[in-house]
Amino acid sequence: MVARTQEGIHIETYAARGILVLAVLMYCIGVGAHDLLSDDALNSFRALGWFDYLGGTVQTTPIQWFDTIPWWANLSFHDAPPLAFGIQYLFFGVFGMSAFAAKLPFALAGLGVVFVLYRIFLEWRGRAPALAAALLATVSSYAVWASQAGYLEGIEVLFLSLAGYFFLRYTASGAWRDAVWLGVAAGCALSVKYTAIFLVPAVFLYALVWRRDIFLRGSFWAAALIALAVLAPVLIYNAEVYATRGHFDAAASSMAGMHPDDFKLIASRGVSTDFSANAAAIGKTLYIVTSIPFLALYAVSVLFLGMKVIRKKGDALERFLLLAIILVFVMFLFIGAAERFLSVMVPFLVAAFVVFAYDLFLSVKTKAPRVALGVVGALLVVAGFELFYNVNTNILAQPAVAHAAFSSPARLSSVGFNELHDYIGKNIFPELAEFRRPHDAATMHMVDEAALRGGNILLFDETIYWFAYVWYIQPYSVYYRLPVISFTNYLQAIPKDSDPLRALAGTGAKGMYYVAGVSDRVVDPVKKRNDAMRSLEISFAEYLDTNGYFIDTIYDRSGSVAFKVYYIPLNGERR
Description:
The chain is mostly helical. It contains 26 helices and 5 strands. Helix 16 (about 315-335) runs antiparallel to helix 18. It is globular, with a radius of gyration of 27 Å.
């Protein structure tokens, strides 16, 4: 018996090491490989300089409302709480302006969720279920996608998992230490995104139904006060926005049914009572981002969990899991469920999967030990298939098997913008001016004269994808005050009869680079419909081609042409 036990310990140790290596590979191997093409670009740009600005007039920010940044506007952001921005800000301080630095916090948060699930099951079930939880969280394609996408949910989910862990510990121990960490984790989750709000009723309903004695503990209310203290910057920010603009931040305004003109672009967002459509969206999203066997076992696991709790055979872990899953589902019945939003469900679904799988194994083991090994084998096959689905979707540049059953359509893209970033850093702006965060609207787009003299001007195709522009081009003008101009704006700014190739010759700049979008994948889908604008950009590139100004081609990861680069000398010398 002793030898067998020691052998089991060795197997579990090797399994733990193998899962750790696999988790690091799955969550970290693609960090920085994908372009920032959505809200990840907008959030990263703002986190880089702790500066809340998007441009335009349909989704405005405090610097546009007041021309300067009020003190309270440094506490949060106009469309989301500040914590994820703050974490990114720290990573940019260490690693600089790069896609790697932008995405690394989310990858590490994904690894953190794997570890938290391991700890939960280690304390409530034992080593084998803990390893199963870590394995399933590692192979989950949806979990890895969320960690690589760079959306706020990728960090929110870590604090949600920690809050669940410390709440379960607190219900068992009643210790002040666990209460304090519960308050910190819950406050942090809400300080990343308001969709963590379901955690509040989950905790209170759990206590009301199963543990009313918790309400009599001072430590429980201290945890609530700690959560509010963590949220203090967000509360102050919203109080000041309401006092000065008559509404809350964009996310809170949507939740409260406000539709302010300051957020015209997203003012229509809010609570929806089209429950059938939202329920269908939840099912569709889960179907899109998860392999069919994994999704089927998710569904079976939640049903099993519900039956067990209803029959009063569930323990603290199972009751809290079921309550959390129900409340997340109810929340998304009101607000809809895009891929990024629903990813906060992943740790709860994985945990339900482990509960079901382990109970099934124990039940079969007592009756037919050999069949129990078959159950383990079948579950490993499902996990292996999900791993293949995961790699095929999130790791490979192109899916090895393109069929929908083996790869999710919710793939992250690499269309050439990371390569453009490298090119700009090496060739156009090899030496950056001092990084400066704008403090008022007047200085936001001022050009550093010292950087202009003897340096280069970046002229870019106005029709390239706007989200990508915000991260890959806008920082050079806003934070470094370098000469960056869109071609459309350039034509409007220069004298009517002047030569567009020589209009800036008197600035002291050495030359002007024009970056033209070639691939449809780098062109903004809205601006692409503006035939006049797109035709103008194409015609200018063709003119430069004809007159020998072409110098370089920028390719995407697949080897396709993404951009063409032209150099126009302003001092009479060709490059």
